[in-house]
């Protein structure tokens, strides 16, 4: 029973959410809302962003199992995604008849809203951008599955994505051209892709992390790291374990065994330490002979390392110890660096990483390094092949 529950939890955790954005050109027509719900049910859509709703006022209501929040109301949903929150921002950009200054002002408003979200959360910005990003690839922003030729508003959207490290997801996966266009000019003279879904890429990163860690748990053996001296080998550790079994015994036989193993541990440890020191000295001498001074000095530091005390307190300008954390630290910073708060967001774009550079950096990852908060080691990344490596390259 527990196994079935765990499988169900795992299935729900990995269930993909279908997110779409549509320009419906008004839901004010009788029956249009019902039509929308039928299409959502048919296409199995979980969340949809609607442009040009053309409803007056603001509202939040339920209609036959669908929750509808319209006209930019404050978020009121009590549903939360796990393990982190998901923020969804629906956008409608003015058409090309409006001035660039107006478009830039709207981008600033979007930036202000994004600044209010938690940086660790998933962010989805979707809607009718009235821009064409085209089929040409922009590394880290768009794929090759757009439509048409990029226009000026498309360049503005891409610059915005670079600044916010967002990815235009519906240009990343293959689909036939007949499914890419969103808006058709009257008479069918031209078709355009102007609705886009922007993602902060944390979803793809989380899926990759989950896949790697699950594969590692299934196929790799995890061992607990023993924080011991470098000369303590497995034989000595086994003797220590045997000694521990007799440590709390009160019988004469048990105390005798404890003393025996205690002496064995001390004797073997001294012997192993002396052997390790001799080998290390030989290694240092060999490095100096070969001219490998950096490696030699690194080994020497193991013998003559000076440990410095770390500062565990922070004092204010008046010399008193600061104990109230963040607030006092802010006062201290303002007092030493000036009270004027500046808000500066300098964006420096980097050139796209080449596939060859990515391959080289991946192969040069060092072994036996500590993992980060994602519990993924360099060895796991180097073992990626095919699609896994391609996904990692796209995320980077």
UniProtKB/TrEMBL annotation:
<dbReference type="InterPro" id="IPR036691">
    <property type="entry name" value="Endo/exonu/phosph_ase_sf"/>
</dbReference>
<dbReference type="InterPro" id="IPR027124">
    <property type="entry name" value="Swc5/CFDP1/2"/>
</dbReference>
<protein>
    <submittedName>
        <fullName>Craniofacial development protein 2-like</fullName>
    </submittedName>
</protein>
């Amino acid at each position: 029973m527990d196994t079935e529950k765990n499988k169900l939890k795992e299935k729900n955790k990995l269930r993909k959410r279908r997110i779409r954005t549509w320009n419906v050109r008004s839901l004010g027509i009788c029956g249009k809302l019902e039509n929308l719900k039928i299409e959502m049910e048919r296409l199995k859509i979980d969340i949809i962003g609607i442009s040009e709703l053309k409803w007056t006022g603001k509202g939040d209501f339920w209609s036959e199992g669908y929750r509808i929040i319209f006209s930019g109301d404050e978020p009121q949903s009590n549903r939360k995604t796990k393990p982190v929150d998901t923020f969804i921002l629906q956008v409608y950009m003015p058409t090309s008849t409006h001035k660039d200054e107006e478009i830039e002002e709207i981008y600033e408003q979007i930036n202000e809203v994004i600044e209010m979200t938690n940086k660790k959360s998933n962010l989805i910005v979707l809607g009718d951008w009235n821009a064409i990003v085209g089929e040409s690839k922009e590394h880290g922003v768009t794929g090759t599955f757009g439509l048409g030729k990029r226009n000026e508003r498309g360049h503005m959207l891409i610059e915005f994505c670079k600044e916010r490290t967002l990815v235009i997801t519906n240009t990343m996966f293959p689909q036939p051209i007949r499914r890419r266009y969103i808006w058709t000019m009257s008479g069918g003279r031209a078709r355009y892709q102007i609705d886009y879904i922007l993602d902060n890429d944390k979803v793809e990163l989380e899926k990759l992390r989950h896949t790697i860690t699950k594969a590692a748990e299934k196929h790799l053996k995890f061992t607990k790291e023993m924080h011991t001296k470098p000369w303590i080998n497995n034989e000595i550790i086994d003797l220590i374990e045997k000694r521990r079994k007799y440590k709390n015994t009160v019988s004469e036989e048990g105390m005798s065994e404890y003393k025996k193993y205690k002496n064995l541990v001390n004797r073997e440890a001294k012997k192993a330490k002396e052997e390790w020191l001799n080998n290390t000295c030989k290694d240092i001498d060999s490095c100096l002979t070969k001219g490998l001074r950096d490696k030699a000095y690194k080994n020497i530091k193991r013998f003559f390392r000076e440990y410095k005390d770390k500062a565990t307190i922070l004092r204010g300008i008046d010399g008193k110890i600061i104990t109230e954390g963040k607030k006092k630290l802010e006062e201290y910073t303002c007092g030493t660096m000036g009270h004027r708060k500046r808000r500066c967001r300098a964006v420096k774009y980097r050139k796209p990483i080449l596939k060859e550079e990515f391959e080289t950096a991946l192969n040069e990852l060092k072994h036996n390094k500590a993992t980060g908060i994602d519990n993924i080691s360099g060895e796991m990344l180097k073992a990626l092949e095919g699609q896994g490596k391609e996904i990692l390259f796209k995320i980077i």
